[in-house]
Amino acid sequence: WQSWSPAGLYRADATSPRPARPVWQTMAFRPERPPPATGFQGEGLLVVDPGDGGAVRVFSSPDPARDVASIRARLAGRRILVEATGEVHEEAFEGDVACALATWADGLGRRMGAPTTAPIGPAWCSWYCYWREVTAGDVLENLDAIDALGLDVAVVQVDDGWQAGLGDWLEDSPAFGDLADVVARIRATGRRAGIWLAPFMVGERSATAAEHPEWLVAGADAGFNWDQRLRALDVTHPGAAERLQAIIRRLAGLGIDYFKIDFIYAAAMEGGRRADASGLDAYREGLRLIRAAAGPNATLLGCGAPLLPSVGLVDAMRISPDIGTHYEPPDGDVSQPSGRGAVLAGRARAFQHARLWVNDPDCLLARPGIERREAWAEHVRASGGLAVSSDPLRALDEWGLETTRRLLVPSSPEPVPPGAAIGH
Ligand code: 9PG
User: Fold this and answer.
1) Residues enclosing ligand 1, CB less than 6 A?
2) CA dist 352 to 230, 293, 349, Å?
3) In sequence order, what DSSP letters do the residues of 274-291 get, joined into one string?
4) Threshold 0.85, pTM exceeds
5) What tens digit of pLDDT does each residue of 334-374 get?
6) What is the pLDDT of residues 22-67, one digit of tens each?
7) Average pLDDT, whole number, for the chain?
8) Residues of 55-94 as b/e, b for ≥16 C-beta within 10 angstroms?
């Protein structure tokens, strides 16, 4: 369904990954469509390889801007039964699964107007070293280090932590410091300034939730994070739409032209809206509002984003759960931060690069203390996608610095040839 949802290639008698906790169904799988206990469920896309050299079958939603069917498959004796909640097309492709997906994605990208994949990056991002406690000083320290170490970084992106509150994006957090000054200093070095925000997420404790309960999607529980329950912004409400665009315009006015728009699954949730619009209609309208306010030359990077409904509306897309300092995920759930989960989904969605958008495999972490950092670096390099360093640059050892230097290149304008197997 979305950036953080697992994807992979499995034996026919296996069961695809399931959320280990109920809140992860909402925040990493498809909120309204819990899967059956066993078998497979793909959202808008499911592929069956008969394994005997016969044609690979691709089952998919023909127009995922309008409807994304939940497509289920289960083994019944010697057959695989496929069923779906909505309209699904079945196509047969010669060749292996990776080739079938490449051809299928070429067609979808054309139909949905995927942007031409001009190279993006390389970048540096504050998240995987400073987390929510990031300050202006931390960003400026790394800006200095980029120059001192002679690293090729085109975009410096401030992640979660600069904002006053979750849903309160018009003001900065006093603990962060002066965002306008940080942006000006980044731009003074000739680099682009980027920012993270979760534009459709409204924390229960935010000023926005208190002042404008009518801007929230009625009945939609968007999960729990930042120590609070989360609600979804109803972009079909004119007041909410105006506020959303005012937020983006203010950030663009500071000189920001790279937006990592995160947790945007919230806009697509089912629930009561001001207008008679489906979750997917509202979601796509929300993305169009952001694009109009950010300007045609801004880079939009989707994250926590419904994948297929975003084609044509974002320049780049996170296609896997977060990388973590640990290789194994919490509770064994591969939708959660971990090397294992990020590599699994990243390989399975490698075919999307330069066909639907620029793939973001998640940040390069090359400092000591990152479990299996060599394998992770190789995964990021081979993806051909966005190269974003997220280490405290002064903490890199010799291997880390050499690897960061080597991997910080613009994204590839071409799809990557199917390399390592998609599966486990
Ligand atoms: C900032 C981070 C980084 C990261 C994103 C995203 O379910 N959760 O509570 C949850 C928390 C964080 C998260 C994903 C899910 O990570 O992928 O790169 O920007 O937000 O908070």
Assistant:
1) 27, 127, 159-160, 196, 225, 262, 303, 322
2) 30, 27, 6
3) SSS--HHHHHHHHHHHHH
4) yes
5) 999 999 999 999 999 999 999 999 999 999 999 999 999 99
6) 999 999 999 999 999 999 999 999 999 999 989 999 999 999 999 9
7) 97
8) ebbbbbbebbbebbbbbbbbeeeeebebebeeebeeeebe
Torsion of CA 123, 128, 133, 136, to 10 degrees: -20
Full strand arrangement of the beta sheet holding 89-93: 45-48, 56-60, 89-93
CB-based burial of residue 50 (10 Å sphere; 0-12 exposed, 13-18 middle, 19+ buried)?
A: exposed
Cis peptide before 122 (omega within 30 of 0): yes
> Band of the pLDDT at 418, cuts 50, 70, 90?
confident
**Residue nearest (by alpha carbon) to ligand 1 atom 15:** 27
pLDDT at site 364: 98
Residue with tokens 């925040």: 27
Write down the residue that tokens 């952001």 correspond to: 290
Instruction: Calculate how far, in angstroms, residue 336's C-alpha sits from the geometric centre of ligand 1.
Output: 9
Tokens of 378: 């190789």
Span 227-274, pLDDT tens digits: 999 999 999 999 999 999 999 999 999 999 999 999 999 999 999 999
Spell out the alpha helix ranges (H) of 72-161.
97-112, 127-130, 136-149
Query: Distance between CA 40 and CA 373 in Å, rounded?
Result: 31
State which ligand 1 atom lies nearest to the alpha carbon of 363: 18
| DSSP 8-state secondary structure symbol assigned to residue 203 | E
Name the packing angle between helices 373-383 and 339-348 (round to 10°). 20
Q: Give the residue among 81, 83, 154 at the shortest CA–CA distance from 121.
A: 154
| Secondary structure (DSSP) of 354-370 | TTTBEEE---B--STTS
Measure Cα distances from 136 to 4, 127, 194, 411 in Å.
28, 13, 13, 27
Instruction: Give the pLDDT confidence score for residue 117 in this predicted structure.
Output: 77
**What distance lies between CA 59 and its chain's CA centroid?**
23
Pairing, β 388-389 against β 123-125: parallel
Pull the structure tokens for residue 404.
């960061």
pLDDT tens, 179-236?
999 999 999 999 999 999 999 999 999 999 999 999 999 999 999 999 999 999 999 9
User: Whose C-alpha lies nearest to ligand 1, atom 16?
Assistant: 322
Q: Which amino acid is at 378?
A: E
Ligand 1 atom with minimal separation from the 224 CA:
9
Long-range CB contacts for residues 376-380, cutoff 8 Å, separation at least 24: 376/323, 376/339, 376/342, 376/343, 377/403, 377/407, 379/342, 379/343, 379/346, 379/347, 380/407
